[in-house]
């Protein structure tokens, strides 16, 4: 009988404690040790998503972790994805495909139906790989959610996993958070917590020794490491808690470019912007300011999980007028997915928000109708408006109809338009367009020409930036965390695989 591969759960004291980055670092340093490792997150609540190699939709963080492990991302790595569509509702994606909309109360009973998907996905990974590093979600100690928990101690109990809890010292109160995360557990769950990691520390770690000794004495749980603050990491953020302005450093030429990204309430896939902010001389600011819309060299309207609701909010803020004034003055605008739909003449939505037909901003010759079934696919083709090849991915309910005479921005290999241009305004349904080096640089050159500026692109590919960041954080974790002890907790024994 083949035994399942060992696994460990990396949980956190709260959201944005560093779980995603630690799992990615572990995946990279372990694969570089020759271990066939895979990431897993049973349930992810995030609006940043990606298209897996098997065609399903998963959290963007798990796609990053798969890249760290040097393996293709699959839907098994994130069987349940919750995409918030309102303050109390979420779109539920199961095994990469849409299931239903639900609210927080109804989701509890739904978890009974979801457990088999979680178990099957984890079992699949533990069969195909030598080690699985699981990631928890939010805070590990949430007694009000324990009876429906698929991703933290519920998963640990179901799959008999050891748990390592990460706390972010940058926020303050890390020792109380770690202790509370342990103390609030029922006895049977508390025993599963085998280690703590303190994250994002600035200064001399020896100053923490008395508190670490006290925490260990109170809990019997060792601190496996203190990870220092690492400046300048550009790894994909999981959700809007990781939203940050970007600065690509000094320009190669004489001038830089300023990009203003509208901070939508249900912003999704804002990782589309990351590669733009890596270019030298390019600064990216997330904003709700009409003045910023007027002053920037490029304004980006990003994706959103609530297109019509976010369009309504733009109108409430007066940003619709600011965008029209900008377009009239020849200022470049780029809309991506939901932002592209907003720039059109009309949106008919009986699916995402159920608002019927509403007027768009009228800046592009397109109209969008939402369908229940979702387009989830990777795309490649070209960008005739920019004179380059192009690639990306689509995750959308909207079907956008393009006027026959419209100038095409991008089109797929079958010749279907994935975006259009009208004067200084561009829109596309393709996420990840800026990750293509030639397309990104051509876009920024076009913006510079429109604004009378000089832009000289960098020479480092976007993918190389991410690889360098993964290598860097992996090296930091290897130096500051007792990874061998963590592997021992997971039950890891270095047994050569059949192919070695």
From TrEMBL:
Keyword Membrane: no
GO biological process: cobalamin biosynthetic process
Positions of the catalytic residues: 337, 431
Gene3D superfamilies assigned: 3.40.50.880, P-loop containing nucleotide triphosphate hydrolases
Annotated family: Belongs to the CobB/CobQ family. CobQ subfamily.
Function per UniProt: Catalyzes amidations at positions B, D, E, and G on adenosylcobyrinic A,C-diamide. NH(2) groups are provided by glutamine, and one molecule of ATP is hydrogenolyzed for each amidation.
Name used for this protein in its record: Cobyric acid synthase
Species annotation: Euzebya pacifica
Lineage summary: Bacteria, Bacillati, Actinomycetota, Nitriliruptoria, Euzebyales
């Amino acid at each position: 009988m083949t035994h399942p591969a060992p696994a460990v759960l990396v949980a956190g004291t709260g959201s944005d404690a560093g779980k995603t980055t630690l799992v990615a670092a572990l995946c990279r340093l372990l694969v570089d040790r020759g271990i066939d490792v895979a990431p897993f997150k049973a349930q992810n609540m995030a609006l940043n998503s990606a298209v897996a190699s098997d065609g399903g939709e998963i959290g963007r963080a798990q796609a990053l972790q798969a890249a760290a492990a040097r393996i293709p991302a699959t839907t098994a790595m994130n069987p349940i994805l919750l995409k918030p569509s309102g303050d109390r509702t979420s779109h539920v994606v199961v095994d990469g495909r849409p299931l239903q909309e639900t609210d927080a109360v109804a989701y509890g009973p739904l978890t009974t139906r979801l457990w088999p998907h979680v178990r099957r996905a984890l079992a699949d990974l533990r069969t195909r790989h030598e080690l699985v590093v699981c990631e928890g979600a939010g805070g590990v100690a949430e007694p009000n959610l324990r009876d429906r928990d698929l991703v933290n101690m519920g998963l640990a109990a179901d799959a008999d996993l050891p748990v390592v809890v990460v706390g972010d010292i940058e926020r303050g109160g890390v020792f109380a958070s770690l202790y509370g995360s342990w103390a609030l557990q029922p006895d049977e769950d508390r025993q599963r917590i085998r280690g703590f990691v303190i994250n994002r520390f600035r200064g001399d770690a020896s100053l923490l020794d008395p508190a670490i000794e006290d925490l260990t004495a109170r809990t019997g749980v060792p601190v496996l490491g203190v990870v220092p603050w690492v400046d300048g990491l550009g790894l994909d953020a999981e959700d809007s808690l990781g939203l940050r302005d970007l600065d690509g450093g000094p320009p190669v030429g004489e001038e830089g470019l300023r990009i203003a990204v509208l901070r939508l309430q249900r912003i999704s896939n804002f990782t589309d912007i990351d590669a733009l902010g890596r270019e030298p001389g390019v600064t990216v600011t997330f904003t709700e300011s009409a003045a910023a819309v007027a002053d920037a060299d490029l304004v980006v309207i990003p994706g959103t999980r609530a297109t019509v609701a976010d369009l309504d909010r733009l109108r409430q803020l007066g940003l619709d007028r600011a965008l029209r004034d900008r377009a009239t003055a020849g200022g470049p605008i780029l809309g991506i997915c939901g932002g592209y739909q907003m720039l059109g003449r009309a949106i008919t939505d009986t699916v995402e928000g159920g608002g019927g037909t509403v007027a768009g901003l009228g800046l592009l010759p397109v109209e969008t109708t939402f369908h229940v079934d979702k387009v989830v696919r990777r795309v490649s083709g070209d960008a005739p408006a920019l004179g380059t090849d192009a690639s990306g991915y689509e995750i959308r309910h909207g079907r956008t109809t393009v006027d026959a005479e419209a100038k095409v921005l991008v089109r797929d290999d079958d010749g279907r338009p994935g975006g259009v241009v009208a004067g200084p305004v561009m829109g596309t349904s393709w996420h990840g367009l800026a990750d293509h080096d030639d397309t990104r640089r051509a876009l920024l050159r076009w913006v510079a020409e429109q604004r009378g500026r000089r832009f000289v692109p960098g020479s480092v590919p976007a993918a190389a930036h991410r690889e360098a960041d993964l290598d860097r954080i992996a090296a930091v974790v290897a130096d500051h965390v007792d990874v061998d002890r963590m592997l021992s907790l997971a039950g890891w024994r270095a047994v050569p695989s059949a192919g070695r």
